[in-house]
Amino acid sequence: MKLAAIDIGSNSIKVVVVEAAASDSFKVLASDRETVRLGQETLVYKHISDAAMQRAIACLKRFRALAEAHGAEQTVATATAFLREADNSDQFIRVVEKQTALRVEVISGIEEARLIGLAASFGCAEKGATTLNIDIGGGSTEISIFRGDEPLLLHSMVMGAVGLTERIIKSDPPSPNELEQLRTAVRFSLENYASELLQRQVWDHATATSGTATTIGAAINHVDPRVSTTVTLEQLKRLNGKLASLTVAGRRNVAGIPSQRADIIVAGGIILEEVMTTLKIESLRTCDWSLREGVIIDRINKTYRIS
Q: In 10 A of CB 238, how many CB atoms?
């Protein structure tokens, strides 16, 4: 069985095409990602612009063709925070289906946390371990605790690297006041969840998924972002201080920081630092698996369970 999953996120759109051999294994045939920034302005003004919609359609046409070229029998397209927030989400879904023949499913924040946590537990956790995962997206941040494929705790917060950058950062480099506003916003979002997470501090290991985490891992340890690597809180604090002191152009010259992420990495890094500090996480592993892999694993599990 060949499957494709397209993750339509607030910052980027990603695709993976796999061939499933059994309920617990699959081979990746192709993958790609493109920074489309659907959350830019949408997360602030709650409306997807025509220009953003056309960027998405062009990307989705290309990704659908990629899936078909590799023989995908099913292509699952999911959308996250930007579409949950937009007042014209129905229009976006109709236009995408008309122009690309893809049916977009808008998933809830909790379902996003479940699927991403499943991917991290399957792809990056030690077998039998209980793992806490942090996923920082463009418009939301999901925290999950998993043991194997069983979710023990799922949370989704409306704060992300694109949304916070758009709302707060107006200076280049960010002013001290803007940096403090970022931290205050993150701490405020965490308030409702921190006590429960700390009471349920049953995890053996911590992981972090998606672009912010893998970029930070690459910048600190000088590795390919697809490589799982360890990030300590002290390393992250030093990197955040360095990045916040630079202009966007200056950040583009930092090894490991891709040009398309240079403007939002400060907000993303601060989110990760504040979550680690609040939850008393001294180190974690980055993980390149995220929502699209979670969708694949979930779909494979359901298919084999039914059959």
A: 12
